[in-house]
Structure formats: C-alpha cells, structure tokens
Amino acid sequence: MPAVTTDLPDVVTLLSAAVAGIGGAERPGQVTMAQAVARAMDSGEHLAVQAGTGTGKSLAYLIPAARHAAALDATVVVSTATIALQSQLIDRDLPRIAAAVEPLLGRAPTFAILKGRRNYVCKHRLATGAAEDPQDTLFDPGRASEIGRQVQRLREWAESTDSGDRDELVPGVDERAWRQVAVTARECIGAQRCGFGNRCFAERAREIAGRADIVVTNHALLAIDALEDGNVLPEHDVVIIDEAHDLVDRVTSIATAELSAPAVEGAARRCGRQVADDVAARLKDVGDDLAQVLMQTPAGRIDVLPDFLAVALTAVRDAAGACAAEIRTSAKNADDEPEQLSARRVALAALDELHDAADRMLGAFGPDVAARPDVVWLDVPLDPDARRPPTLRVAPLAVGGLLAERLFGCKTVALTSATLSLGGSFEPLARQWGLPAGGAPALPGPAVPGDDDAAPHPLAWSGIDVGSPFDHPRSGILYVARHLPPPGRDGLPPSYLDELGELITAAGGRTLGLFSSMRAARQAAAELRDRIEFPLLCQGDDPTSQLVTRFAADEATCLFGTLSLWQGVDVPGRSLQLVVIDRIPFPRPDDPLASARQRAVAARGGNGFMTVAAAQAALLLAQGTGRLLRTMTDRGVVAILDPRLVTARYGDFLRASLPPFWATTNPEVVRGALRRLAEAPEAAG
Q: Which residues pair with 396 in a beta bridge?
C-alpha cells in the first residue's frame, strides 16, 4: 500500500491558489463542490454533484484529484463524454492548475489523456496494409478517389504526429479511410510480437498514462475498462465522471452488439486461406440465408423470436464458431510472421463478434419479460436509397447492475453535470446508474455501529446541488405556449409555425430552435425562410460546427436543429437570446430500447412512463434550456411550444427539472420582453 502524505494543504487552500493562478474569481458553489469531492475521496462514499454552468466545476474536481494523487501516490481517472471537454481539461485547465499548485504540493501534478486503441494510428497496419473487405475498404493510396486521398494524407500525417491521436487530425477523415490505418484491441497482435511495438502510439499513450496522477479518458473507454476483463486504464481507486448525464447512454452503446448479412460475408472473406474452403463457404452461405431472413422480418422490436430467425441466428453462431475454432487449432503450432498473425487476429475478431452477437440474441427471449437481460430489434433504414443494410441489434435493458458491480462496487466515484437532478431529485439517474434509493446500501453487510474502522458500504452515495452563479429568475423567462393545441404526429401544425415566426420576429433573429426530429426542423426551416427577414440555418446544410460558428458570428441569424444541438451549443452573448423547443422530447413510441425498458419497469410493478420516458424527456429539456445562459450577462427566453408542460400531470416533474426561470404563459408578455432585449444597447447585456 502506498505511503500516505498528510501534511498537504487542504482543498480550499489549493483551490484558492489555482483560482488566483488563472486570474479567476472564487465562487461559493465551486468551493462547496471541491470540499464535497474531497470528502468523498476520503470516505469512499460515492457523490453526485449538480453544478450549473458557470460554477467552474472542472477546477472543483481537479483540485481534489490532484491532492488525492499527491497524498496517496495514486492515479485518479477523469471521464468525459465529449472531445471538447477532454481538450479543455488537457490543453487548458490541467496545465494551469499544475503550475498554480506546484509550490503548495511540492511538485507539479502530472496528467495524460488515454483513449481506446482504435483512436490511434497503427504503424503495423500502415506498413502491411489493412486486412479488410476488398470491395469497400482496400484502397490504393494513389487512386484518384476521396478515400484514397484521405489514406495518403493519413500516411503523411503519421510521419509527423507525436501522438497518432485521431482527434488531433484537423480536418478529420472518413471512417472508411481511418479503418485502413487503425486496429481494435481484438485485432492488435500485441507489442511483444509487433515490429513496431516500441514505437506504437497506443502503447506510448498507455505508458504515459500509467505514470500520471490524473488520466483523462472518455465514457466509452471507462465502460470497456469496467465491463470487460483485463485492465485498459491504469490502476486507480477514484473515478470522476463529468458530463455524467450521458453515462448510461454511452455505456449502453458500448454494450450493444449488431449483426448483418454484410458483416457475415466480410468475416467469411477475412478467413481467407486460414480455414478449409468448405468451412468458409458454409459461413458465406449462412450470411446469404440471413440476408433473406432479414428481408422477411418486420422492422422494430422483436418480442417473440420467430423460428425462421432462430434458425438463421443459430446457423450464424455455429458457422462463425467453427471457423474460429479451426483458425485457433491451426495456430497452435504455427510460427507466424507478424503479417500472418495480424490477418488471423482480424479474422478472429470478426468471427468472435458474430458468434457472440448471435448467441446473445438467441438468449434474449426468456418467458419473464421483466427478467430478460436484453432487447433485440431490427433496424431498417427509412430511406430506401440508404446504403446501410438491415441490421439486428441487441442492447441491455439496463446497465445499472453492471455499473454497480464493476464500477461503483470497486472504485470511489464522483459524478457531476449541470443536469443531474430530475424532478428535483437525484434518484432517477442514480437508479439508472445502479445506486440504491435514498443513498442507502442495497446489499447486505452495512458497517457495524460504533466500529470506526468499518469500511463504508460500496454503494453508499449522496447528492448535492451547488447551484449556479446565474440569477435565473432575473436573467431568463420560461414561456410555455399554453394556448396552442397539443402536438400531433403529422409534423408541426400551422399554429406552431405562426407562434415560432412571431417569437423570432420579436427577438430580431437570435434564435436557436431545438426540434424533437430532423423532419420537424427541416419543415420549420422550409416554411419560415420566406416568412421572416432573418438568415435561417438548418442542421444538415453544412457541418454542424460550421453552422454554430456562423450562428454565433451574426446576431440576426437563427439556427434550427435536433439532438446534437440540444447538448452541444455554447453561444454566449446577444447572438442567442431565444431558445425554442417544439415539443417535449419523449422517446418515440416505437423506439425499441426505450419501449422495452418501459415495459420491463411496468412488469416489475413500476411506472414505466415516468421511470423511462419522462426521465429521458426531463434530461433533454434541462440540457436544451441550459443553452440560454452561458455567461453572467446573458439574458433571454426559453419558449416551449408544447402546452403539455403546464397542462399534463407529468408537467410538474418536468418543470422541476429545469432552471428556475421566471415563468409565464402569456404570449404578449414574452414578445414584449424579446423586443426590449433586441432593442437594448449591447453593453446592457
């Protein structure tokens, strides 16, 4: 066990030094959060912290992390959901913090970023070529094709980059091009067998991370580390999860598997000459059979496994398993060169994925709906011209059990976001994370009363809301258009478009329109462009980052879009003074995963709608309304056109999840406020 250093300054002292070092101002919520995170690290009790925009939450968890690492000579992992926040932590926050606290800690805290292997260029693959499907992924870099040009650019970039990190390549490249120069963990032949092992970008990143006090990673790699055997991240005892509102979705994505006919065909080709012709031919044949079966299978959730689909899945599982077994048998006595070893690893990775996905789908249909571990559905593209094939998917009904066992059960975890409290409580999200209600232990074995040395229960947790520096009632208005009819299923009704046009006109543009579907966003953009005098951008017209830049640069411009804009837009100042939300963002009734989760909750006697649909809608509404105020001088209106927010029984729960804006349902009041904001001098904010 590492030695403990006890004579370090407390977190408040360190935080003050860091704030002064970066020229900032101390914020009460930031101090409260830093103290709470430090207590959690000392006690081992998990912590959920809601910290509004402007709190300075990154310093509030990085300072306790740096102190904990210095005190125990330990590593703290910080996980984020977005590349933007990872870059902010590594490029801006951590260097300044390290310099500011070095005199107090006696040394500068060290830090590193670590991502999944597939995020780094593989020098072996660059040298030997990709063992991929010839028809769509083997490209001659000299060919006059876009993918070929991108691969050539990647080769040139690989000679100059120090990190090999895909996110540092600007502009980026197509996924098909990146596949030519990167490998998954399953495909990697290992540093010991690879001629480039001592120069491997991924291995170098792992080595640097292994020596760091603070390791910044993403939710996907955190999930892989927690859910799979084998340590992906360096040894650590504390995890800090920023953007924790996204944790369940990211873990669910990692735990989702898929199966399609082209995937089977591709795996058969990857086997090449490594198996007998009849064994490879059998796998190709079952892929052809699967293609026919999926053409006959209705799209959407599959509640009862049809016999014809069960036969096809069994055939895929058995054929993939037979190919993999033959490759492994032939490899036992083989002394392969790295090229042959790489081809075998690529083939085995594809075969194992097929086998495991088919086997998991076959096991997903138990008689007790509430006890089923997974949900299976067929995803068919709505656009008949889309190249994406019909694809079977299988996803976990819940990830809380996995997180409770593999993350919360063995690490101390602090979770934070601007939106963690739904309906005024942390418990809706805590339930999804696998934490018990009320912060009480869900498993037997609580500490013995009076035993000061007893360890805290591994699932004990608490939640705090440290508030926001914004004065929401004075800075923003929440307007609900109660006079409008409830939204229908046939697009935006004329009254919604009229209301939206009047609000935009009153605001003088300056509008971010957040829509529940791309169809609604495009409809609104098409119909309003001729009715308003302001520039109107719609997601899909150009890359989203370019649209946001243009929106921020011109006060009069409006921007309409869907999900990524609900959580990914940070535009302070007068360019954004009106956020319009067309309807409460409930999951679609035919969403296979959400509907299956609702059904499972109901089968256990719970309220599936409130537990799943309302919780998801509340989280998105909180994220969407959070786009309005980004600095202390911002002012504006959040307008929700869906009257159910004030007329439906669940409206109280949803409104309790939103910032405490001043609220009204009077359209004249809100249009007057928008006109005054538009006419106000810029200095007045």
A: 374
- β-pairing verdict for 111-113 and 214-218: parallel
**Element (DSSP H or E) covering residue 48:** strand 46-50
| Tens-digit pLDDT profile for residues 77-87 | 999 998 889 99
Which residues face 558 on adjacent strands?
536
139 is written with which tokens? 């490209």
Q: How far is CA 186 from CA 73, 223, 351, 353, in A?
A: 32, 16, 11, 10
Question: Which tens digit of pLDDT belongs to each residue from 30-44?
Answer: 999 999 999 999 999
Distance from C-alpha of 49 to C-alpha of 52, rounded to nearest angstrom: 10
Q: What six digits make up the tokens of 629?
A: 């105020």
Beta strands at 578-581 and 558-561: parallel, antiparallel or unpaired: unpaired
Residue carrying the six token digits 């094939």 = 389
Could you write out the DSSP letters of every residue in 555-608? TT-EEEE-HHHHHH----STT--EEEE-S--PPPTT-HHHHHHHHHHHHTTS-H
Q: pLDDT for 448-475, tens place per residue?
A: 333 334 455 678 999 999 999 999 999 9
Whether 118 contacts 184, CB under 8 Å: yes
Q: At what angle do helices 57-72 and 94-105 cross, to 10 degrees?
A: 40
Helix axes 219-227, 247-254, angle to 10 degrees: 60
